[in-house]
TrEMBL record:
Protein name: GNAT family N-acetyltransferase
Entry keyword Transferase: yes
Keywords recorded for this protein, A-Z: Transferase
One Pfam family cited in the UniProt record for this chain: Acetyltransf_1
Positions of transmembrane segments: none
Keyword Kinase: no
Domain N-acetyltransferase residue range list: 3-150
CDD domains for this protein: NAT_SF (cd04301)
C-alpha cells in the first residue's frame, strides 16, 4: 500500500478532531495540544486513513503526540509505515530521538511500539488522573503513562 503524509495547516486542524479522538478520548486534553507541533493526515490510495501529530520537546527530540487510524486500516502495517515516514522526515530535520507515551491499559499500543523498535524508558505515575473522565481499556483503568524512546537512525 502506497502511504503518504500531508501537512495540515493550523486553520484546518479542528476538522480532524474526530480522528484525534480515536487515540485520545478526552476532547479537553486534545484541545490543549491540537495547535502545537506538526499534524499530518495519513493517506493511502483510498484517501485519508488516519492522522499523526508530533510536538517538539527540544531541538533534538520529537514526540509522537497522537496517531490514529480508521478502524478498517489497523493491523495492516500502516501505523508502522507512518512512523517510519515520521522518523525519516524528522531525522532529516536534525532530530535524534522520537518518543511516545501510552497508557498502562493500552496493551495493543504497548506491543505495537515495541514491535516498531521503541524501548520503554520511563513511567509517569498518575498521568491519566488529570483527565476529566477515567479511561478504562481491556478492563484496566489508565493511571500511568509508559514512555517509549527510539533513536532515529541515519539509514
Amino acid at each position: 500500500m502506497n502511504l503518504t503524509l500531508h501537512l495540515v495547516v493550523q486553520q484546518e486542524r479542528e476538522k480532524y478532531l474526530p480522528l484525534l479522538l480515536l487515540a485520545d478520548e478526552s476532547k479537553e486534553m486534545v484541545r490543549e495540544y491540537i495547535g502545537e507541533g506538526d499534524m499530518y493526515t495519513i493517506n493511502s490510495e483510498r484517501g485519508i486513513v488516519g492522522i499523526i501529530q508530533v510536538t517538539f520537546l527540544s531541538s533534538k527530540v520529537v514526540e509522537l503526540k497522537n496517531m490514529a487510524l480508521l478502524e478498517g486500516y489497523r493491523g495492516k502495517g500502516i501505523g508502522r509505515k507512518a512512523i517510519e515516514n515520521i522518523e525519516k522526515l524528522y531525522k532529516g530535520k536534525g532530530y535524534d530521538e522520537l518518543i511516545v507515551g501510552t497508557a498502562n491499559s493500552s496493551i495493543d499500543n504497548i506491543a505495537f511500539y515495541q514491535k516498531a523498535g521503541f524501548r520503554m524508558s520511563e513511567i509517569r505515575k498518575d498521568f491519566f488522573l488529570s483527565y476529566p473522565e477515567p479511561i478504562v481499556e481491556n478492563g484496566i483503568q489508565a493511571f500511568d503513562m509508559i514512555v517509549f524512546r527510539k533513536r532515529l537512525s541515519s539509514s
